Structure formats: C-alpha cells, structure tokens
Amino acid sequence: MPRRTAAAPRPPDRGRRRWWRYALPPLAALLGALVLPPSAGRAPAQAPPVLNVYNWSDYIAPEVLQRFTQETGIRVRYDMYDSLETLEAKLSAGRSGYDIVVPTSEPTFARLIRAGALRPLDAARIPNLANLDPALMQRVARSDPGNRYGAIYLWGTTGLGMRPDRVRELAPDAPLDSLDLLMKPENARRLARCGIMVMDSATDVLPTVLHWLGRDPDSADPADLRAAEQALLAIRPHLRAIPGSGAIVDALATGEVCLALTYSGDVIQAAVRAREAGRGVTVTYAAPREGAQLAFDMLAVPADAPNPEAAMAFINFVLQPEMMAAITNRTRYPNAVPASRPLLAPEVRDDPNVYPPDSVLVRSFVAGTPPPAAERLRTRLWSRFKSGR
Ligand code: N2P
C-alpha cells in the first residue's frame, strides 16, 4: 500500500508558502480515513487483536466466543459454511483471511495438508492438546500422521432426520432405522407428500449411498459411481429440495419436511427446537443400521492465517473440558475431550444419537480421500443429480 505524504521530503521553501501545502497532510489523512479500513492507519500496538474463524453453521456455543474475548482481549470475527465443498472452494482460492477453519479429517483436511494449505499446530502453545482422547486422535492420524496439523473439535454421524409419526402414517411398513427409508424409490415416493430433503454435499452423501449399495464408500470405479448416480436419480423426483445442510435444520424443526439425510447433531438440534416451539412437531434421528458414515471435524490453521498466535490460543481455550462441554451441550455433537463428559447435561450425555453406542460404532465407517480423477467424476455426478438429469 503506498505510504502517505508525511515522510516525503519537501522541496526547500522559497518564501511564498501556498495554502495547499498546509492543507495537504490533513486532507490526505481525511481521505485516508474515508477510504482505508479502520485498522489500516493504526499502529499495530493499538489495534485490538482479531481472530478470524470460519466454522460450520450451528457448530459453536456463542458463550464460548464471548468468554474467549473476555479472557484474552482477542475479538472474534465469525463466518460460517454448511458444506465441505464451500469450505474447500474458499480455502483453495488462497488468502482466505481466516485463522481457524474446521475441515473434516477426510477428505478435506487430508487434502489441505497435502496442498501445504495448513500450518502445523504450535503444540507448546496448546497444552490442552493433552485433553484429547488418544484413541480418537489415532483415528485421524491416517490423514495427519503424528497429529501435527489438527485437533478434533467435534465428530458425528450422517443419517436420517425424520418426523416418525408422519413417516409411519404414509409408509407404515418402511423401516425407520435403515437407508431403505430414503433410498428405496417406493418409500421415497410415498413420503414425498410430507417432504424429503438430501443435503447438498457430494463429499458427505456419496460415501453413504455407496455403502448402502454394498460398494466401497471411497470407490473410484466409474461403475460404482454410476450405480450411486442411478440410485440417487431414482429418488430425485420425490425430493423437495437438495439444500445446504444449514437449511435442513430449519426445515426439520418447523416440520416442513418429514425426512432428511444430514448430519446427526443438526437433526438433534432441530428436534430440540421443534420441541421448544410446542407445535406438535416431533423429530428423531436414526444412524442407518447398514452402517453410518462417521466424520471427525478438525480445528486447523490456514498456512497464511493473519493471526496464528490467536489461533493457537483459541484452540487451547476451546479444548478445556468446560468449553467442550458447553459446545457439545449446545450443538449435540460429541467431542473428543473425555474430561468434558461429567460436565455434560445428562440428556445430552445419555443420548445414544449424540454419543453413538458401540453397536453403532462397530458398523460405522470413515470416508477416505478419493483421487482427483474420481473426485471430478463425483462432482459431475452430483450436479446431474441436483439438476435431475
Ligand atoms: C454442523 C455440521 C457439522 C458436521 N452444522 C460435519 N461433519
């Protein structure tokens, strides 16, 4: 940015001073104040430090951000996304301006590490890394050997959100805990009347569909992907919409749809909101009995983060058991800090849809990272599904 005039040497004064010589510096300052962002003219020492967070929607307890600012003096600028595709597009353009992002361990976090787009965590500044469950951190070491680039924030499953009373009414013989409820066209056809949505994310939906078909969720085989496309196109006419996951929380909570394929905690949040609204809408979650997709979402720092120190301080702050408990209580996603468990509200701690029991975990799977060519096929498949062709 060009420096302003103050430091420029002036020609020696030849006697007749011109008014604009005096007017120029204040005018420049005034223009600068109008044109430049507020922090640009301030000395760094005076500027309040800012942490730029890019996180999933409905994925924080607001009081945690307030406490962070109170205790550290660091202000938080907070933006949200509701799919891995949106996050990845933003980060791959570079210079996102974010200090904290929350990619899923695979494929997004894995790809970001490989692309050099993340900065290693500064473990010396994050003593609370020791609070993380080593067994869970071991599971994400496949994408991040040695756990150098990320700490598990929250995790969860992908499954079915539904209004069980409406579903039973319209499809009495359909199983409530199986993906057949959505993926068998005869079920989708009957439920279309009360509204079905599938979240808009090839990355998070295709592995679930492939797994339901009995194929490898990470398959790069065009035949497998064609089968998944056929299955999706067969239910496409019965879907009300394929919106971002954020919109599905509202649609379930208000009763606008009776079936949706989306993230576990989002459904449970919708169930809580529906109950609180008291209008007779009941929402439940089911992890598919065929085996649920399990996802670990990582606290990570972009390589070009403007304020990496604040990012490390934030990760350390969030990993305190008390903060993690507040976040899980609010979002209904499980965390990876065991010492937070006794601090959880009993109805959250004991909800098998929040903390899946072993019977669900043994059948679950974690998606991998398809090679670029397969990724391109998946993206194209998904746009055909969305347009219904
Ligand atoms: C938050 C969804 C986050 C879950 N609304 C993604 N694994």
Considering the protein shown, what is the CATH homologous superfamily?
Periplasmic binding protein-like II
SSE order? HEHEHEHEHEHHHEHHHEHEEEHHHHEH
Bound ligands: pentane-1,5-diamine
Taking the alpha carbons of the first and last residues, their distance comes to 49 Å
Number of helices: 17
Strand residue content: 5-15%
CATH class: Alpha Beta
Biggest sheet: strands, sense, closure?
6 strands, mixed
The second-level CATH architecture is 3-Layer(aba) Sandwich
Characterization of this structure:
With 389 residues, the protein is α/β, with parallel strands linked by helices. The chain has a single domain (20-38, 47-387), classed as Periplasmic binding protein-like II (D-Maltodextrin-Binding Protein, domain 2), CATH 3.40.190.10. It contains 17 helices and eleven strands. Strands 5, 6, 7, 8, 9 and 11 form a six-stranded mixed sheet that branches. Strands 2-1-3 form a three-stranded parallel sheet. Helix 10 (222-235) packs parallel to helix 17. The longest helix is centred in the N-terminal third of the chain and has 17 residues, at 19-35. It starts with 18 loop residues before the first helix and ends with a helix. The model is unreliable at 1-42 (pLDDT under 50). Bound molecules: pentane-1,5-diamine.
Blueprint (SSEs and pairs):
Elements lengths: L18 H17 L14 E7 L5 H11 L2 E7 L2 H9 L7 E2 L3 H10 L3 E2 L14 H6 L11 E12 L1 H7 L9 H4 L1 H7 L4 E3 L3 H11 L9 H14 L9 H9 L5 E5 H14 L6 E3 L6 E7 L1 E2 L5 H11 L2 H11 L14 H4 L8 H4 L3 E2 L5 H16 L2
Parallel strand pairs: 1-2, 1-3, 6-7, 9-11
Antiparallel strand pairs: 4-10, 5-7, 5-8, 5-9
Helix pairs in contact: 10-17, 11-12
Bound molecules: pentane-1,5-diamine.
